[in-house]
Design goal:
Elements lengths: L5 H10 L7 H21 L10 E5 L5 E3 H15 L4 E6 L6 E2 L9 E9 L10 E9 L9 H4 L8 E7 L3 E6 L4 E7 L4 E6 L10 E3 L10 H11 L10 E2 L5 H11 L2 E4 L10 E2 H14 L3 E3 L16 E2 L1 E4 L1 H12 L8 H4 L2
Parallel strand pairs: 3-5, 11-12, 11-13
Antiparallel strand pairs: 1-2, 3-4, 5-6, 6-7, 7-8, 8-9, 9-10, 13-17, 14-16, 15-17
Helix pairs in contact: 1-2, 2-3, 5-8
The structure holds 2,5-anhydro-1,6-di-O-phosphono-D-mannitol and magnesium ion (MG).
Length: 344
């Protein structure tokens, strides 16, 4: 049986772009190599070298850095940083952008990543992932400026994620649809397994940390209580599915449809998830698959960040589900009005 590898697929997609120089394919190939290394580490966590647990450091987000977080950040930074294809790397784990020094031959791309998302799930064998996003350098001259690092979401030229789960899956878009590849561990090669992914227009699940109910705004409580109401004409009640690893929750939502939400709340008034490393790349992917991503009031890809660690509320998934969320959030609700859905 003839199977398409990820390398072949990237090359084919690049050929469709007349001015292509091969630099983009080169960068994507390096992302794939780093992903294979992380996958191997994740799959063998607990065997031999002690990779579980904490490094004892605290990152820019104020969170404890896990050993696998640090390993993933270093692996991606080394491999991508020496690829000759990028001029800067930003990471959820790094306070500041890493600017590629002249001796490592900076290229024309900017690479952004959450090297290991969902890391609170590492020690308990639950799916984790990597998210990445690629922009082209915009400013003239050799210096990397804010104009390059803080680009609007729509300027992304590619985005993807890797889920380290029951199998390792690499999903990416370069603006020509969304394609998924599964790692064949015996050959060490990613093969096309999910071509032209399309998210269902409406799903039947919602995904959110409902433990935050007490710190949610009334409109958010109203939205979730509405999803629990019994009304077969609108497909309710929705099922609840929440893993707590964004990549895993997003991957399920992409394949099956539904609504993932991480709203702002009184604990995180701006939201928890980050624009550059989480929301923007997944928004690019979901839109390419026919879905939507919103802050509740604005299309995520229309945002221009003010800093690399900017956070935002995120509603992402099936088109109709995200639109329904936007509509309900825009409707003023009285305190406690959600009670009517729960008692209906
Ligand atoms: P991380 O990047 O530090 O791992 O944090 C992001 C994670 C996401 O994977 C997930 O969607 C969310 O945080 C879960 O947060 P919570 O534990 O508040 O539900
Ligand atoms: Mg993350």
């Amino acid at each position: 049986m003839e199977r398409t590898t990820l390398v072949q697929h990237i090359r084919q997609q690049e050929k469709a772009n007349p001015g292509a120089t091969g630099e983009f394919s080169g960068l994507m190939n390096e992302v794939m190599v780093a992903a294979k290394i992380i996958s191997l580490q994740v799959n063998s966590a607990g065997i031999g070298e002690d990779i579980f647990g904490l490094t004892g450091k605290i990152n820019i987000q104020g969170e404890e850095v896990k050993k696998l977080d640090e390993f993933s950040d270093i692996t991606f930074t080394k491999i991508i940083g020496q690829s000759g294809t990028v001029c800067a790397i930003t990471s959820e784990e790094k306070d500041e952008p890493y600017i590629i020094p002249p001796e490592d031959h900076p290229g024309k791309y900017i690479f952004m990543m959450d090297p290991l998302d969902g890391s609170s799930n590492i020690d308990v064998n639950v799916n984790i992932g990597t998210i990445f996003s690629i922009y082209r350098k915009k400013s003239l001259g050799t210096d990397v400026t804010d104009e390059d690092i803080l680009q609007k979401g729509v300027e992304q030229i590619a985005a993807g994620y890797i889920v380290y789960g029951s199998s390792t899956i690499f999903v990416y878009t370069s603006g020509q649809g969304v394609h998924g590849f599964t790692l064949d561990p015996t050959l060490g090669e990613f093969f096309l397994s999910h071509p032209d992914l399309a998210i269902p227009e409406q799903g039947s699940t919602y995904s959110t940390n409902e433990g935050n109910w007490g710190v949610w705004e009334e409109a958010q409580k109203d939205l979730v209580a509405y999803l629990k109401e019994d009304d077969s004409s609108t497909g309710r009640p929705y099922k609840l599915r929440y893993i707590g690893s964004l990549v895993a929750d997003f991957h399920r939502t992409l394949l099956k449809g539904g609504l993932f939400m991480y709203p702002k709340d009184s604990k995180s008034p701006k939201g928890k998830l980050r624009f550059s490393f989480e929301a923007a790349p997944l928004a690019f992917i979901v839109e390419q698959a026919g879905g939507k991503a919103s802050t509740g009031v604005q299309r995520v890809l229309e945002i221009t960040p003010t800093g690399i660690h900017d956070r935002l509320p995120l509603f992402i998934g099936s088109k109709k589900d995200v639109e329904m969320a936007e509509e309900r959030l825009a409707t003023p609700v009285k305190k406690g009005s959600w009670f009517k859905w729960l008692n209906s």
